Amino acid sequence: MKYESLLQYNPALLAFIATLFTWLMTALGASMVFFFKSINKKVLNSMLGFAAGVMIAASFWSLLKPSIDMAEEMGMLAWVPAIIGFLAGGGLLFSIDRVLPHLHMGLATSKAEGIKTSWQRSVLLVLAITLHNIPEGLAVGIAFGALTNNPEISTLMGGLVLALGIGIQNFPEGAAVSIPLRREGFSRLKAFNYGQLSGLAEPIAGLIGVYLVLAITPILPYALSFAAGAMIYVVVEELIPESQIGDETDLSTVGTIIGFALMMLLDVAFG
Q1: Which residues contact 70 (CB under 8 A, 6 or more apart)?
Q2: CA distances from 252 to 41, 177, 247 (A)
Q3: What φ, ψ does residue 150 adopt, rounded to 5°?
């Protein structure tokens, strides 16, 4: 099927299918818990570093750069939507991070962030993972929402490449979630369910993103940079620190470089 034929479909439907793909990749990664009881720290750090690299590259090539280009085409000062949206996206995630109770992997329950609560450790762990997935879903939804006022093959390919890149990094990410949950004492099935359920935040966030753009088309440059800011917040707050835990940190750095290069290749060559 030629990619041009996809332009006849509603952007919301395309965004939903794309984010279902990213969720499926999370679920496939989470299914690794059925084959492995533990994960080598070097491998885990590399996987987290790889995911960070993909998200950093996607934030610029798939979101910030199109935001700047689109603002120029709309007669705006190019840097205004990029800066305002980026800071707003990071600021919103910072606010949610301060309020929503959650717990990062490997930390004691006493280290939970957000409002103090008596919720179970498993719930806090899953909320942390879900918070991470929201910006990714928003980014894909907004990218496909751009088809509303720019129904061109280049815009479509940008959305497809972004979904592909996020899907690729969701596979190791899913494994990096479910296998440590198994180590926390969860059964294999429970660890898998928690791992893949966290990925369901992406289709929901994707639909929210695309409908925001459909409702208010002029905000698109701001929405793209907003998604970039939210993704960068997740990378700096969660992925990079967790990939640097322990003595074996060189591989996480290499993983970040490889992840960035792969996403840049996908976006520049096919986006």
Answers
A1: 81, 146, 150, 220, 221, 224
A2: 10, 16, 11
A3: -145, 65
Exposed / middle / buried, residue 71 (Cβ in 10 Å: 0-12, 13-18, 19+) = buried
Cβ contact 71:80 at 8 Å: yes
For the chain, state the CA radius of gyration.
Answer: 18
Alpha-carbon gap, residue 232 to 52, rounded angstroms: 9
* 123-138 pLDDT per residue, tens: 777 787 788 889 999 9
Extents of the domains making up the chain: 10-270
Residue 246 tokens read as 């322990």
> What's the pTM?
0.88
Q: What is the pLDDT of residues 251-271, one digit of tens each?
A: 899 999 999 999 999 998 886
